Amino acid sequence: MVAAADVEHNGLTRVLTSIAVVVRTVVLACTVPFFSYLMPFNGSLLNFTIVVLFPCLSYLKIYMPRFGVGRFEVAAIIGILVIGVCIAFVGTYTSLHQIIGTV
């Protein structure tokens, strides 16, 4: 009986959290000028960190001391990081250029 109540509470919490995120995004979109240019800037800057940087560095942090990571793996990870940094830089620059161009 307690487990069913916890599941219902968790479901309600998820729904309320989702609604709050959507409402907050809509309010920001209506109040912040250049919101359509601000979101790609935010995405290109922060998503790179979450999607590319953290997994690569975490992999090295976890597996380097335990098993030793081969030179090929380290080179591949460094290559991924360099390409990711270049893409993030281009995305950030493009977004900033659009924001400045519309001001």
Automatic annotation (TrEMBL):
Compartments, record wording: Membrane
Domain Amino acid transporter transmembrane: 10-95
UniProt-listed Pfam families: Aa_trans
Broad class of where this protein is predominantly found: membrane
GO terms classed as biological process: amino acid transport
One cellular component term from this protein's GO annotations in UniProt: membrane
Alphabetically ordered keywords of this record: Amino-acid transport, Membrane, Transmembrane, Transmembrane helix, Transport
TM segment ranges: 12-35, 41-60, 72-93
Name recorded for this polypeptide: Amino acid transporter transmembrane domain-containing protein
